[in-house]
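Inputs:
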Amino acid sequence: MISFIKFIGRYSIELFVFLGKMFIFLVDSIYYIFIPPFKFRNFLRQVRFFGNKSMIVVIFTGAFSGMVLALQGYYALNKFGAEALLGPVVALSLIRELGPVLCALMVTGRAGSAVTAEIGIMRITEQIDALTVMAVNPMKYVVVPNILAGIVAFPLLTAVFDVVGIYGGYLVSVHALGLSEGTYFSQMELYVDMEDIRIGLYKSLSFGLLVTWICTFMGYTSGYGARGVSRATTNAVVLSSVVILLWDYMLGAFLL
Amino acid sequence: MIEIKELYKSFGKQQVLKGVSLVINEGEVTAVIGRSGGGKSVLLKHIVGLLKPDSGSIFIKGQDITKLKGIKLDEIRADIGVVFQGGALFDSMTVYDNVAFPLAEKTKLNKKGIYERVIKALSDVGLQGMEYKYPAELSGGMRKRVALARALIAHPKIILFDEPTTGLDPILVRSIHKLIRDTQKQYGFTGLIISHEIPEIFEISDRVAMLHNGKIVEAGTPEEIQKSNNIVVKNFIMGIENGGSDEERTS
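Outputs:
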């Protein structure tokens, strides 16, 4: 019994230490965002990196999400004779929920993992130490551009995801299921408000911050050797994915 | 110029430095020798402020750097160059960008000025024409030379070398050592070399200190070290495993 309590105690302490370190890391990163010199080129390079790495997979996932939503939505709506509402169902599901979440999950797997691995390798090959001894703050040089790039790139990629998804839904609805083109888009225009788009934008923006925070932290604190980096990368992807889903629910409950 | 006083450092239960005291004179090359895992690299990381000791102090230019943080520590670091064990070159950058990095980040030199300095530094280390290669395309010896060029480019007053020749063949070891000696004569920096290249290290050092079991057991000129009666030093130079207790060995 005592050993069990010891185990719980030790585990809790480790958890709090870990969360504390993560929080301090975030506070440090936000602090360095506002301290010059600003690494604008690094920021642009990372925006390109996120976009370049993830665009194809985002387009692919977006298209099939929209298509399957249209297919399943039609089946459900047909039971009530409400097929005309297929456009708004596809658009609202994508814009408010699936777009930000699926896009964030995809970008995490594609670019987030690469960010963790890159920073982890920089850590184990002493490149981070080299920056430090050259009096170049590694938080500012490596971490901040990634976090800022995530905040900018996630909403942009989500917007691409939403648009592609809506067109995927259009293809299935109009060309496969025989819904009229006018109905699909006019009903969408009627039911989708600016507020819905804003909620989706806020979500993707917060996912951008969360994912880049977790992925840079995991890389920055990566253990030694190939195993250390591989573990950091796995942890970054798993933790980011769980946090995306958790945060999505919390935000949904708060914003609805 | 660098004075290390009673430095202690533990990682968990393992005590790595057990009261290291050492003076590194200005304009000289001091070598710290000792067996692998003896705390030599840990000592070097303390000198540049990458690690903080449990107790003890390190004075550089009269300031105890173990007590410094932030900008004050960066001001001291601006005068220090480090050649890391594996080179620590930025693998996403070309050789040129790696060498230019300290100038591009920390000085107001224009592109032309940086270009001239980089070309000169690369030619000093015998790597002309390699500017646009990536570190992954270079051999181990070339990478060490690029790391040396990067450490030299800002003309620091102190350069710390963490095993600059480990893993290289004897010819390259000599060539890197010659390079260190030549550049030291040219720029006059204070050098600290962590090494276990015996006897080559004696040729390029003004002073040698032996770190053993977390303490400096002997320090002196290369001649004094080679003639030392200390059994630990003798055995290390001859490549013989030590026997007996630490007390016997260090007495």
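Remarks. The mean pLDDT of chain A is 93. Chain A touches chain B at residues 118, 121-122, 125-127, 129-130, 132-136 (CB under 8 Å).
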